[in-house]
Amino acid sequence: MASIRGRMIELEDPTDDPSGPTSDEILILSIASDLAWYAHRFFRGRGLAADVNITALWQTVDDPPRLADVSFTIDVSGVAETTCEALRSALEERAAARSLSSSPRVRVHSQR
User: Fold this and answer.
1) pTM reported for the whole predicted model
2) Of 7, 55, 65, 1, nearest to 28 (Cα)?
3) Residues near 94 by Cβ (< 8 Å), separated by ≥ 6?
4) CA dist 18 to 12, 15, 21, 64, 87, Å?
5) Domain range annotation of the chain
6) Phi, psi of 59 (to 5 degrees)
7) DSSP string over the chain
8) What are the two backbone dihedrals, phi and then psi, of residue 34, each rounded to the nearest 5 degrees?
9) Which end of the chain has the lower number of beta carbons within 10 A, N or C?
């Protein structure tokens, strides 16, 4: 189980439940979700109504185990191509600004 701002989310071990999402899939989903919400705010801020659909593709490598070649395709309907180009630039900046530039600090606590 994971608690995020008081909401409990059940996380399945993919080896126990192959139908459950893997940690890589959850990470990709969180990035795609952030991009989708940002795109909606981008259009709302310009007084535009647009449908946004995001598709993510990625590969993993084994040595060391990690995500590789992550890409997102954002399909937008109802807006001009120049607006889509502005959105693409904004999303690239957002993704770069939100990526980890250094290893996160890790703390381990023993609870009894």
Assistant:
1) 0.77
2) 55
3) 34, 35, 38
4) 9, 6, 8, 23, 36
5) 32-99
6) -125, 160
7) -EEETTEEE----TTT-TTSPPHHHHHHHHHHHHHHHHHHHHHHHTT---EEEEEEEEEEEETTEEEEEEEEEEEEESS-HHHHHHHHHHHHHHHHHHS-SSPPP-------
8) -60, -45
9) C
